[in-house]
């Protein structure tokens, strides 16, 4: 930021250098948060996720106090499943579940769908989890291009993949 102030205040730098400095400052100030949601069963709990961020806050006496915080991959999306559990999707294609303060990994959306990861392509596979939606028996998530996975709750109160919807991308 000091360098940016120096460039902006120095008359020796031309207009292009000044614009580049402003653009550089805007990139460094990009928001880290992707998703914010309230617990549907307790509106005093808030989940915040984004670039390296996955935190749970609780509203107490007109201020937010941090209840849980996890350092991890970039979290692109999350959804509340019940009063004490949240499912989150990462840029690396992982599905994570926070339940009673403990974080664990669920089945990878691409397990059993490896044919969608075209190894002959010169592009890296798109395996990110970009959306999660709760339904009556569990949740569905989108993972990369053309894949939606359906998960249902098990007797052990965990979730397992029960189906996939694929669309070939050409």
Q: Order of strands in the sheet with the most strands?
A: 1-2-3-4
Principal-axes shape call: globular
Q: Which CATH-level-2 architecture of the largest domain? A: 7 Propeller
**Percentage of residues in helical conformation:** 10-25%
Stretches with pLDDT under 50, minimum 5 residues:
1-5, 21-30
- Overall tally of domains: 2
Order of helices and strands: HHEEEEEEEEEEEE
Instruction: Specify the number of helices.
Output: 2
CATH-level-4 superfamily name of the largest domain = YVTN repeat-like/Quinoprotein amine dehydrogenase
CATH fold topology of the largest domain: Methylamine Dehydrogenase, Chain H
Q: In the CATH hierarchy, what is the class of the largest domain?
A: Mainly Beta
InterPro entries: CFA-57 (IPR052993), WD40/YVTN_repeat-like_dom_sf (IPR015943), WD40_repeat_dom_sf (IPR036322)
């Amino acid at each position: 930021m000091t360098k940016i102030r120096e460039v902006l205040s120095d008359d020796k730098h031309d207009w292009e250098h000044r614009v580049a400095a402003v653009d550089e400052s805007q990139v460094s100030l990009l928001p880290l948060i992707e998703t914010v949601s309230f617990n549907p069963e307790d509106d005093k709990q808030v989940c915040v996720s984004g670039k390296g961020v996955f935190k749970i806050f609780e509203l107490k006496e007109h201020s937010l106090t941090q209840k849980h915080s996890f350092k991890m991959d970039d979290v692109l999306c999350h959804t509340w499943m019940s009063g004490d559990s949240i499912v989150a999707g990462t840029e690396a294609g992982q599905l994570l579940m926070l339940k009673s303060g403990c974080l664990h990994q669920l089945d990878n959306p691409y397990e059993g769908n490896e044919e969608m990861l075209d190894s002959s392509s010169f592009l890296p596979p798109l395996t990110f989890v970009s959306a999660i939606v709760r339904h009556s028996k569990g949740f569905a998530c989108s993972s990369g291009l053309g894949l939606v996975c359906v998960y249902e709750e098990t007797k052990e109160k965990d979730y397992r993949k029960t189906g996939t919807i694929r669309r070939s991308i050409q």
